[in-house]
Specification:
heterodimer; A: alpha/beta; 2 domains; B: 11 helices; binds adenosine-5'-triphosphate; binds magnesium ion
Chain lengths: 321, 247
């Protein structure tokens, strides 16, 4: 037996009619770590989270969360987890304090304990000043913090955070990152989804990149970065057959292939030694490559390399809370 | 059980802060009462003072209007993220929906008391003993329960809160073609059949009979049968729809 797993899923599949949303997703998250499911819009992140949180039944596949089977031991799973969904789950017409007290009562605390817990959480999430204001008057960042606080009224062993920072400004995003870091410090397992590579990089011990319902890459941030080194060698080939030949020689290392432009890229560490070796390898006769360029890879490059389309960058995203 | 009480507290608090729900619960009833008594009352001959005739009808009409609030709030809950959180905390659909139903009963109790108060001021003179009052309250309560559960089912069925509100229109409309506002004999023949055999008529007749000390006849049984039937059907439908909505 290896280390105990907080989340263990195999072959999760889900379709809506003819549309396949998840096509066999495997996930393994060791206890007490942060796992990030990284993917663009519509990749299937929320669907995965809802299945693991027992809110949605998968068509195929099994999963255990906190040691319990999501299909046969729902109740035990629900007792061990908490969920902060993609869309805020607090009542706008109640104050922050009322929302937290309500959640604490629902989690089984008595009236006095609920009041105490609400006060603690308001303090911890820097909301004491707004405790008696209706949530309708909160900013996006405050609402997100309250939402997260609401899922911590009792200490769960696994916490699911579905896109906790989408739509937040950079300052609120930093604050949220700090909160997540603190959670792990207290021994919880954090399962978080995000569209931002930077966020996964900062927070996660392990990342799975999901696209169109499939895991397309997984590993620690360091492993992923190694695989998609931060420099990129872009080759422009002389003609179609040279292009075919070079792409064939690069094999799985080819990224951002563009037959129309006769260009292909591959990862490099940017040293002259490595670039010379690469050129010799893919073009031994020195006839195929017309020009080359070395670029610093952006987050978008990594996304593009892995999924074939660009990621959303936080700056371009508009607030939608 | 304690979950249900917490949900009741939540829904009552939410209703008192929802301006639209409060207007529907408090001002609309009084407006409708005054409208009927002073504007239409003069033209309608019911054999008694019109305010005396119309009070049960106004209460039922308001219950119909207020059911829209239930349908909309249930639909909003299902659409928002909060239902996922409740379910992930293992809070059952019964608790969630009971909160909405209890809040609706509280709103209707408030509006009924208000309507009775204003009606007394403008000349309503009931003639009922404590038992008759109790009976009238019981019948009104079962009517409110029935249409509130129906509204909850509609809220679960509708894809959006707006649609939910639209669907309750026919519930709100039902008191008009009944004996609530005009005697059925004054209606065109083709409408009389419907008016006599729909739930609002026996409920109105029973409440009116009890409050004015008139013979109630079979109406009480019909009223209870209608309300019980609608409530039972709606509760079952809600349970099924709740399961369906959560897939
Ligand atoms: N109830 C449903 N019926 C039909 N299609 C659905 C349903 N729920 C989700 N989908 C589809 O499944 C796909 C994956 O959805 P999901 O919400 O899991 O994506 P996501 O990765 O969370 O995306 P986002 O970043 O936009 O939140 C989407 O294409 C979505 O349209
Ligand atoms: Mg999502």
């Amino acid at each position: 037996m290896g280390e105990p797993l907080a989340v263990e899923a195999t072959g999760l599949a889900k379709s809506y009619g003819p549309i396949s949303v998840l096509a066999g997703v495997d996930i393994a998250v060791p206890q007490g770590t942060v796992f990030s499911l990284l993917g663009p819009n519509g990749a299937g992140k929320t669907t995965t989270v809802r299945i693991l949180a027992t809110l949605l039944r998968p068509d195929r596949g099994q999963a255990r969360v906190a040691g319990f089977d999501i299909a046969r031991e729902r109740r035990q799973v629900r007792r061990s987890i908490s969920l902060t969904g993609q869309y805020a789950a607090v009542d706008e017409l109640q104050t922050g304090e009322e929302n937290l007290r309500m959640m604490a009562r629902l989690a089984g605390l008595d009236r006095r304990a609920a009041r105490r817990r609400a006060a603690e959480l308001l303090d911890r999430f820097d909301l004491t000043g707004a405790a008696r204001r209706r949530v309708g008057t909160y900013s996006g960042g405050m609402r997100r913090r309250l939402d997260l606080a609401a899922s911590l009224v009792v200490q769960p062993s696994v916490i699911f955070l579905d896109e906790p920072t989408t739509g937040l400004d950079p300052r609120s995003r930093l604050a949220m990152w700090q909160v997540v870091t603190d959670l792990v410090g207290s021994g919880m397992t954090v399962f978080l989804t995000t569209q931002y590579l930077e966020e996964a990089d900062r927070l996660a011990d392990k990342i799975s990149l999901i696209d169109a319902g499939r895991v397309v890459a997984e590993g620690t941030p360091a492993e992923l970065k190694q695989r998609f080194a931060d420099q990129r060698l872009e080759l422009h080939l002389v003609d179609g057959s040279a292009y075919e030949e070079v792409v064939r020689r690069l094999g799985p290392r080819a990224i951002a292939t563009n037959p129309a432009q006769l260009s292909v890229s591959t990862a490099t560490d940017g040293t002259a030694l490595h670039i010379r070796a690469l050129l010799d390898e893919v073009d031994p006769d020195h006839t195929a490559v017309r020009r080359f360029a070395v670029h610093t890879a952006t987050l978008d490059d990594v996304f593009l390399a892995l999924t074939g389309h660009t990621a959303t960058s936080p700056e371009k995203e508009t607030a939608d809370v | 059980m304690s979950d249900t009480l917490t949900m009741v507290g939540r829904c009552v608090r939410l209703s008192t802060r929802n301006i639209e729900a409060m207007m529907t619960a408090l001002f609309l009833p009084v407006m409708l009462l005054l409208l009927f008594v002073y504007l239409f009352g003069g033209a309608i001959d019911t054999g008694t003072k019109y305010v005396t005739y119309v009070v049960p009808g106004v209460i039922l009409l308001c219950a119909g209007w207020s059911s829209a609030t239930t349908a909309v709030t249930v639909s909003q809950d299902m659409q928002g993220g909060i239902i996922d959180r409740f379910r992930s905390m293992d809070i059952g659909g019964v608790s969630v929906l009971s909160g909405h139903v209890a809040a609706s009963i509280a709103r209707n109790a408030a509006s009924t008391v208000l309507v009775l108060g204003v009606a007394l001021l403008v000349g309503f003179r009931p003639d009922a003993g404590p038992l008759a009052w109790l009976g009238a309250v019981g019948i009104l309560l079962s009517f409110v329960l029935a249409i509130t559960w129906l509204a909850a089912a509609i809220g679960l069925l509708a894809k959006t809160p707006e649609a939910a509100s639209g669907f309750t229109f026919f519930v709100a409309f039902l008191p008009y073609p009944s004996s609530a506002f005009v005697p059925i004999d004054t209606m065109p023949g083709w409408l009389q059949g419907f008016a006599r055999h729909q739930p609002v008529t026996p409920v109105t007749e029973t409440v009116r009979g009890l409050l004015l000390d008139l013979p109630v006849g079979n109406n009480a049984w019909w009223a209870l049968a209608w309300c019980g039937g609608i409530a039972a059907m709606s509760v079952i439908l809600s349970a099924v729809l709740f399961q369906r909505r959560i897939r």
